[in-house]
Amino acid sequence: MLNKLNYINTLKRTILVVDDEYVNREILGAILDDYYNILYAENGDEALKLIQANEKILSAVLLDLLMPVMDGFKLLDVLKDDVRYRTIPIIVLTSEKQAEVDSLRRGAADFITKPYDAPEVIIARVKRIIELSEDRLVIQSTEKDEMTGLFSRSFFYEYASLMDRYHMDREMDAVSVNVDRFHLVNEIYGREFGNQVLLTLSGVIKDFAARNEGIAARGDADDFYMYINRQENYASLERAIYSAMESLSRSVYIKVRIGVYTCPADFQDVENRFDRSRLAANTLRGKFNQTVAYFDNELQHKVFYSERLIHDIHEGIARKQFEVFFQPKYGVEEDEPVLKSAEALIRWRHPEFGMVAPFDFISLFEENGLIQMLDQFVWKETASKIRYWRDKYKVTIPVSVNVSRIDIYDPEIEDKIDGIIEECGLSPEDLHLEITESAYSDNAEQLMSVVQDFRDKGYLIEMDDFGAGYSSLNMLANLPIDILKLDMKFIQEIHTDEKARRMVQLIMDIAKFLKVPVVAEGVEVEEQYRILKDMGCQLIQGYYFSKPLPAGEFEKLIKA
Q1: CATH (domain of 250)
Q2: What's the count of helices (H) and strands (E) in the chain, helices before strands?
Q3: How far apart are CA 62 and CA 110, in angstroms?
């Protein structure tokens, strides 16, 4: 039997009494009125309409079998066949033994014998059936988290739903609490200390939830949830948490993120509420002077916007809403700059949102695994353009395309890119493969193996955003790369900051030692261009020469 919270036990349930005889309805009403909110129906048809209108709050139906219009047997069959009503327990009202057996076979949970001369028995049976029914709803997963004693997440969601059913007028907050960078706590101070942090935090959360007539749960690892009465602010929770953490260790600073979703009365999806509170908490990453964040209209808009983009990607690709732009790379070793190659950049002309900026959807699709679909679209479109320009102008302009981290883990990635090259009649060196520096840092061994296989086939590999990640010099010396692409952050201040200029020169010297050419991207003014050219930079990309261009505009550069 589940351990019920006291306030759950005292909630007044709603039941439906169905009997065509007025006297019988009145007798049952008199017996049960002190314990339940009671609805009445005279026949099965009337009862079905009430069940349909009140399915979310009904805890049981007391059903007579012999009635006009629609009898109890027919209603039992209807309810049994509808997944929406199967969880509502039906207690049959009858004096016939055979009818009891038949009704139980049709899905009834129990029966009450006529005449109603034992009120205590009726009260006890109704109470027991409702409890058993509710237990089946909430015991789909383990009740408690083994470490903290808080509800498990699934159990927590079920009880939160029950609270909504029985207290629809209560104003509630869905609260998520998360330990910032908890994995570092485990790595630096050990798992035992990490467990003490979780236990201490869970104690504060459990106490706070109880004081505010709510319930608390532990989700995954360091995620905690509370469903509590609406709060004006969470200053007292902040103080309680940091006080407890200081008592645990004065030498270790533990920061938490608290996300709050203030629940509207008509919003019934519990899991969605906590998704939103987690989103609010996640906005606090890197904000060390702020502990609490609320899910507001701005975040609501962002979530809606992101969900729409995720939903619309398939249609966007099918309807060619995505378009590949090309930003030229100029060789600057000679007196006059020469168009040498280009980078393929994706743009989205959304029918509703207009031109969607890449930073709005690239990272979003990376998080959801959809980036592979987009990458393959870019590879195919780019290879097709390279071939088209070769046939038209008798010149090959190599173009670099992005290979995302998730692409590296695709066992078919080589076959996919090889197939595109073969289909378009190109050579591997025509399509340069850009991989970010941070991808090398994430899983260097597997990535280097995949990259080396591509190089062995003749593909040129560009390390993108070099300097933005954390590659060691030793790692850099062993990376299978053909071109080093300098992160634009270095370029922005090269003409105004001596340190930035010296850093770029150092990278140039390293590249020269490794015998790989350097592409400087983000070059916007002539002074930056002159400095880079004097340093020996081979290729320059940026607004100084050209912004990213649609294929038709880029073609004019080839023609020129």
Answers
A1: 3.30.70.270
A2: 23, 21
A3: 10
Write out the two tokens for 256. 């938490």
| Tokens, residue 508 | 């140039």
In a domain, 165, yes or no: yes
Residues 280, 386, single domain; the answer is no
Structure tokens at 191: 């798992």
Q: Are 49 and 26 in contact (CB under 8 A)?
A: no
Report how many domains make up the chain: 3
How far, in Å, CA of 282 to CA of 108, rounded? 47
Q: Where are the alpha helices (DSSP H) in 412-443?
A: 413-424, 437-442
145, part of any domain: no
**How many Cα atoms sit within 13 Å of 530 on the Cβ side?**
4
Question: Residues 501, 378: one domain?
Answer: yes
Q: Which residues contact 505 (CB under 8 A, 6 or more apart)?
A: 535
**pLDDT at residue 155 in the model:** 84
Name the DSSP class of 432.
E
Distance between CA 312 and CA 229 in Å, rounded? Answer: 37
Q: The domain spanning residue 363 has which CATH number?
A: 3.20.20.450
Q: Give the CA distances from residue 393 to residues 203, 302, 327, in Å, rounded to whole numbers and listed in that order.
A: 72, 45, 18
The SS3 assignment for 215 reads: strand
Collapsing DSSP states into helix, strand and coil, what is residue 330? strand
| One domain, residues 373 and 279 | no
Instruction: Tell me the angle at which helices 371-393 and 551-559 cross, rounded to the nearest 10 degrees.
Output: 30
Q: What is d(CA 163, CA 27) in angstroms, rounded to the nearest whole number?
A: 30
Chain centroid, CA 360 distance in Å = 15
Q: Is residue 554 part of a domain?
A: yes
Q: How many CB atoms lie within 10 A of CB 496?
A: 10
Residue type present at position 434 = E
The three-class DSSP label of residue 461 is strand
Instruction: For residue 371, give the H/E element and its range.
Output: helix 371-393
Residue 97: domain span = 6-138
Provide the pairing of β-strand 172-179 with 256-262.
antiparallel
Task: Tell me which residue of 64, 216, 101 sits closest to 150, measured CA to CA.
Answer: 216
16 touches 48 (CB < 8 A):
no
Specify whether 230 is located in the same domain as 368.
no
- Bridge partners of 259? 176, 293
**Assigned domain for 213 exists:** yes
Q: Is 486 helix (H, G, I), strand (E, B) or coil?
A: strand
Block means of pLDDT (10 residues each) for the chain, 560 residues, are 50 88 88 90 90 87 88 88 83 79 82 81 88 72 78 87 82 92 85 91 94 91 93 93 90 90 75 90 84 87 86 93 96 92 96 90 87 95 97 95 89 95 96 81 73 93 72 63 86 88 89 90 94 93 95 93
Residue type, 415: D
Contact 266, 171 (CB under 8 A): no
Q: Which two tokens stand for residue 36?
A: 């339940």
Exposure of 236 in the CB half-sphere (CA atoms within 13 A)? 9
> What Rg do the C-alpha atoms of the chain give, in angstroms?
33
Please indicate, yes or no, whether residues 289 and 323 belong to a single structural domain of this protein: no
